[in-house]
Amino acid sequence: MASVVRHVTIDCADPHALAGFWAQVLDGTLGEDDNPGDDEAVVNSDGASLLFIRVPEGKSVKNRVHLDLQPQDRGRDEEVERLLALGATVVADQRRPDGTGWVTMADPEGNELCVERSHAERIATGGA
Known about the structure:
four-stranded mixed β-sheet
């Protein structure tokens, strides 16, 4: 039998705060015993379980791994606006006039993520 991914682990300065951001992004929940000041915090959601670990050093280069988000109940552009309101920033806008493309964003600690088109938008533009 193969292994399964239990958590995607992300190094950060403030696990509780960053986990709170991602819990909102993923409509997930923080672990019951996660509190401000803890050295780790977990977000459980339908799509993934993210584990945030406090490390002393800050992010210094591009992520080697990042999350690609596909909105489920809204379009890509609406999701980008929602994430901006939660505290994310736009790193690179790869949206094209024909409706394809994605937006590379960063969470409040600078970890990159991409917002792709929703399933409905992929069908409408003929893309996979």
